[in-house]
Amino acid sequence: LIAGFVIRGTAPRRLLIRGVGPTLAGFGVAGTLADPKLEIIRQGETSPLATNDNWSTPVSPLTSSAAELTAAFTSVGAFALTTNSRDAALIVTLPPGTYTAQVSGLNNTVGVAIVEVYDLP
C-alpha cells in the first residue's frame, strides 16, 4: 500500500502518519494486515526517512513514545489504536516536498490496511 502526499510552502510540517491493519478488525474489517510496517520516503530518494513497526513499542531514538502518539491521536481526532497492537504510527517533521507513506506486511504477509496522514497542531 502506497499513499503519496505533498508538503507545500516554505516551512516544515509536523505530521502523524499511521499504517493501520489489526485495529481495523474492531471496525468489522475482515482479512486485516496482521503486522504492518510503515516507511516514509521522500521523492527521488531510496532510503526511508522514518520507519515504524508496532506503534506502542518504539525501537529507535527517532520514534515517538506510545504516550506521545496517543496524545497525537486525540489531538487530530483519530481513532485509538489498541495497546500492543502491531499497527504502525510515527510523528515526523518534514520539510516541503513530495513523499510516500508505504505500508507492507512484515515477512511478506498480506491483508487489508489503511494509511493515514494528519497535520499536527
Descriptive notes:
The relative contact order is 0.40. The longest helix is centred in the middle third of the chain and has 11 residues, at 66-76. The mean pLDDT is 93. The chain starts with a strand and ends with a strand. The chain is built from 1 helix and 7 strands; from the N terminus they run ββββαβββ. The strands form 2 sheets. It has a 4-stranded antiparallel sheet with strand order 1-6-3-4, with no helix packed on it. A 3-stranded antiparallel sheet has the order 5-2-7, with helices on one face. The protein is mainly β and 121 residues long. The chain has one helix at 66-76, and strands at residues 2-7, 13-20, 36-42, 50-53, 88-94, 97-105, 114-119.
Secondary-structure content class: mainly beta
β-strand percent reads: 35-45%
| Strand neighbour order, sheet with most strands | 1-6-3-4
Distance N terminus to C terminus? Answer: 26 Å
Largest sheet: 4 strands, antiparallel
The unreliable regions are none
Average of the residue pLDDT scores? 93
- Give the helix level as a range of percent: under 10%
Sum up the structure in keywords:
121 residues, mainly beta, four-stranded antiparallel β-sheet, three-stranded antiparallel β-sheet, 1 helix, 7 strands, 39% strand
